[in-house]
Amino acid sequence: MVRRGSYAKGVARREEILESALDVIGRKGYQNASLKEIAEVVGVTPAALLHYFGSKEELFTEVLRKRDEHDGLDPSVAGAAGARDGFLEVIRHNTQVPGLVALFSRLSVDAADPEHPAHAYFLERSERLRGTIAESFATEEQRPALDPETLARIIQAASDGLQLQWMIDPSVDMPGIMTSLIDTLAPRPAPHP
């Protein structure tokens, strides 16, 4: 019995660390979010953080997973229009959390190394994102000119590239540009009279 209680407390503490790290990185930025500061917010030592996550890279990978939980898109629930609008809402939200955008961009470059702790996360996330996008466009009444998988790759590439441009120049209108691109590549079907 004690073991179950300890396990539950450990899971709860891990969640608390992730939520706190998500908040700190979102507010202060990736560059300014030290393990020490995240640990202080939670009330643990930096060594305790590493006890729960193994390394800074693993902690940051799990922070991105937690962010994805908060931003999740499910086309089976939202429908085609809902998935499109949900994806654009995530992009709008990203403009409010530049630290998380910087973390995502930096970790994605590092994760190109198959040995990096975030490598599998980025592969799985990309596949899931493209699947969500492709599924939403595959159900449109008016089919886009491109097949849904190609369209999903183009939208993902444009979104990731716009994030980099926006990090350099915050005047870049990520949501506006992505809305225009999606509306051009896959216009919404005309409403039925």
Automatic annotation (TrEMBL):
Residues 11-71 form the HTH tetR-type domain. InterPro entries: Homeodomain-like_sf (IPR009057), HTH-type_TetR-like_transc_reg (IPR050109), HTH_TetR (IPR001647), Tet_transcr_reg_TetR-rel_C_sf (IPR036271). The keyword DNA-binding applies. Pfam families: TetR_N (PF00440). Residues 34-53 bind DNA. It comes from the Bacteria. Keywords: DNA-binding, Transcription, Transcription regulation. This is TetR/AcrR family transcriptional regulator.
